[in-house]
Each structure stands twice: as structure tokens, then as C-alpha cells.
Amino acid sequence: xxxxxxxxxxxxxxxxxxxxxxxxxxxxxxxxxxxxxxxxxxxxxxxxxxxxxxxxxxxxxxxxxxxxxxxxxxxxxxxxxxxxxxxxxxxxxxxxxxxxxxxxxxxxxxxxxxxxxxxxxxxxxxxxxxxxxxxxxxxxxxxx
Amino acid sequence: xxxxxxxxxxxxxxxxxxxxxxxxxxxxxxxxxxxxxxxxxxxxxxxxxxxxxxxxxxxxxxxxxxxxxxxxxxxxxxxxxxxxxxxxxxxxxxxxxxxxxxxxxxxxxxxxxxxxxxxxxxxxxxxxxxxxxxxxxxxxxxxx
DNA sequence: ATAAATAAGATATTTAATGTCCTATATACA
DNA sequence: TGTATATAGGACATTAAATATCTTATTTAT
Lengths: 144, 144
Ligand code: SF4
Ligand code: SF4
Hints:
CATH topology of the domain at 5-86 and 126-141 in chain A: Arc Repressor Mutant, subunit A
Largest interface: A-B, 39 and 39 residues
Bound molecules: iron/sulfur cluster
Number of helices of chain A: 7
Oligomer: homodimer
CATH architecture of the domain at 5-86 and 126-141 in chain A: Orthogonal Bundle
Strand order of the largest sheet of chain A: 1-2
Distance between the termini of chain A: 34 Å
Number of strands of chain A: 2
Helix content of chain A: 40-55%
């Protein structure tokens, strides 16, 4: 796996929205500034998040983004995988056909185990936890 | 982190050498063929492995590569990190200065934990285990 | 209607991975 | 000692992906 900038930005965006609460609408500009995300890039990321059913997008004046679910219901894993696809550490775990050895390969098994462990770790934490305590909110968000 | 082709090839090369045993010399061509690695690419990878002290390279006729340590002494993590550098899942874990929030960030802590866990998992397995049992040897290696 | 705000897609720009090629160097052996 | 063999080392080409920006279209509050 590789956490891309888009992935990192998506997390920041979701944590910011989670901090506001479910259904609270926030403008793209505000999110971009406070979470330090290039505004145009955020637009693309928001489209992905909306397509995945995580946020609602409202157009027009007073438009903006809002969370569709409760922050507790969204895991970090979910946000990450919306942006970068299902997590794998080695290609052969996701597409075993890419290596004819995969069935017998002990290295393959290690990558599978490591992957499962990683997804468990990321799946365990939700956006509520990540946004609720002071220490969970990136410092560039504090002045609100 | 992202396991590059170079990383995957390095693992195959080391597993193949481990299968032969410490100090046993094998030609570049043999490794390239049996482990399905582009020969020219293997040359570059071997240079990295040699620089890291994992293998010895002998030039000239009857030249080739050989393991310098016992397979039990080399972990999968070691091989991977020689090729792709120290493992991180998010940039901010390796270079906290890239994000001013890193000190206070709860997401950051999750990435740190996940990283430690991953490195532990890869550090636990060594090349002896990976090469010893039949099932550990990729099928393209069996005819030896 | 108008202006504000995002949508959607096209298009750079940058960066990294991957693979190849060429010349140099080391070494076994005739 | 010379020659053929095999790798070293660095330069270069190709490909792919991430990142960012720009333009035009659409939606909607007023
Ligand atoms: S050799 Fe094993 S780890 Fe490597 S690509 Fe094949 S199955 Fe995966
Ligand atoms: S917001 Fe947190 S997780 Fe994201 S880059 Fe900054 S410190 Fe790392």
C-alpha cells in the first residue's frame, strides 16, 4: 500500500467534518484552508468521498460538504480504502495470478498476514475517536 | 510503504541464495532465470544487497553471488528495508516536520502504531524459514 | 436573472519506478 | 601474458502514477 496525498487529504477532510458533526455543512474553502488542502485537489477528493457515500455535496451559494454518517460509524480504514483502493502490501496478495508461485510461497503468506493485521489496526479506529479529544485535532484546526 | 519490484526481486534473490546456503556461490544468470528476475535489473539489485553487506559478489568467469550470513540471521524486514528504505506508512511518521500537526495528531499515532506492528511482523521471519520447507520455495525454483 | 459555489473532465507537471545499454574492471584459464 | 567471461557502475530511456491546475458546465440562493 501507499498512502497518497489524496489519501492523507481525505482523512484530514473527514476528521474536520467529523469534528463538526454529522450533517453539519462546511464550505469547501473552509476545509481547504483549515486542513491545509489545495482547494482544487479537495474538489476531486470530495467527489470520491461523495461517490462512496461518506459525505453529501451541496452546490450553489451556501454550498459545501457534510458527513452523511455518524463519525463513530466510519473507520480510518474505510476512508483510506475509498481513496487508494483495497490495501495490499504486495501485488501478489491482491492479484495472485501475477506470480505463479503464490500458492506455495511462504513469503506470500507473510504479506497476507501483515496485510490483515494492518487492515485490522486501521479498521479499529473511527472518526469520532480521531476528532473528539483536543489532541486529535491537528493544530491548524484549533482556532475554532 | 510500497514494495517495489526491486524489493520483490531482492527477496526472491535472497530466498534463492538462502535455499542454497551461506557461502554457496550462484551465477547471476541462474538466479535471474530461476527466480524470474530481469537479468540487468538483478545486477543493480545485487549491488544494493552487496553494499548492505548481505551478499558477496565475485566478478570474472565463474563469478556470481553468495550469502554472507546464515539465513537465520537475515530477516525479511532487513531485505525489504535495504531496497526501499525504512518502512513508513505515512510520510509524517518518518519526517514529522512535513506536517505541523504531527505532535498533536491522533491519526499520526495510528500510523505510528501500524508501522511498528508491520515492522515487527516482517522482522519476525527470517530467510531460513522462508526457504527451508518445500512450500517456502516458489514453484519456479522446484527443479533443483 | 444573477452571482456564488461546486461538478466534471481535460490537461499539465512532477516524481518515481522500471528496465536497458554502454564502457570499465576483475578474474579464470589457455 | 593474453583472451574470453562475468559482473560493476553509471547513464539513459521508457513507463506509470501522483499531484496539481484549468476550463467549462451545472446547481441553487437570493
Ligand atoms: S514470489 Fe511469493 S511473495 Fe513474491 S510475488 Fe511471488 S507469491 Fe508473491
Ligand atoms: S494530519 Fe496527522 S496524519 Fe496527517 S500528515 Fe499531519 S500528522 Fe500526519
